[in-house]
Design goal:
The protein is mainly alpha-helical and 163 residues long. It is 74% helix and 0% strand. The chain is built from 8 helices and no strands. Helix 1 runs antiparallel to helix 2 and helix 4 packs antiparallel against helix 5. The protein is globular, with a radius of gyration of 16 Å.
Amino acid sequence: MDISAFSALLFFPFVVPICIYVAFSDMRDMRIPNQMVVALFFVYAVVGLVALPFDVYAWRYLHLIVVLAAGIALNAGGVMGAGDAKFAAAAAPLIHLGDLRFLMVLFAANLLAAFVAHRIGKHTRLSSIAPHWKSWTNPKFPMGLALGGTLAIYLGLGVVFGK
């Protein structure tokens, strides 16, 4: 992995709770709260100053702009929700560009696993633990489960296998 273990280690403890809440909130309400997107952005804005060299830190804001533009287009096309697009954009600066292919494979695997686990979970007793969750009855998939999981796993792997 091209992400430095140092930067992954600094981001990890701040980002993982946000990712967990995003997954939970998206399953419960089928929405990703804007406060979590802003919190993720602020984690990068503050911790990134310590975790990354300044030139790298500044250039990674371009990742946010590119992913936000793509997310807006995908949202307009009905492919993804607005919260998913905003979360992906806020997460983009945390990703090392050299890890993009790895991240896509990780996201695909995590999306498949999250989809299967969610669909199985809604037909088991797990759904009786949280019967009010909107994702059990909504035909759409709570993508925050996969997006948050992917970012948390990526940073965790970065801590262990990063440069």
